[in-house]
Design brief:
Blueprint lengths: L10 H9 L10 H13 L6 H8 L10 H9 L17 H12 L6
Helix pairs in contact: 1-2, 3-4
């Protein structure tokens, strides 16, 4: 794994963020889903803390045909995970799931 400087965001992560939050499955477009899938698959682990924080903002209302699960798995690889500032939106089911997983592992979320 090549070393990455803290504070860097790779192209695949930046492109995902530029696409915006995941749509709900009912409104997802096939080509956009394919592109997101390609980008998610291209991201090597671990993420930087900055990348994890950026990807947390992409969670939508459902799992978007599995894309949300892929994001969840990626963000949990960040070296400082759980990042408290990423876990404040308790109105989002995915954020609540990340919080619960961290708490179940005995990690602080505050």
């Amino acid at each position: 794994m090549p070393w990455r400087e803290a504070g860097t965001v790779r192209r695949a992560v930046a492109e995902l963020v530029a696409m915006g939050p995941l749509p709900d499955e009912k409104h997802a477009e096939v080509e956009a889903l394919r592109r997101r899938e390609e980008l998610l698959a291209a991201i090597d682990r671990p993420l930087t803390d900055e990348e994890a924080a950026a990807l947390v903002g992409l969670f939508g209302p459902d799992d978007c045909y599995g894309a949300a699960w892929s994001i969840r798995h990626l963000v949990e690889t960040a070296p400082s995970w759980p990042i408290a500032s990423c876990l404040r939106d308790t109105g989002n089911e995915w954020i609540r799931t990340l919080r619960r997983r961290a708490q179940n592992a005995g990690l602080r979320c505050e």
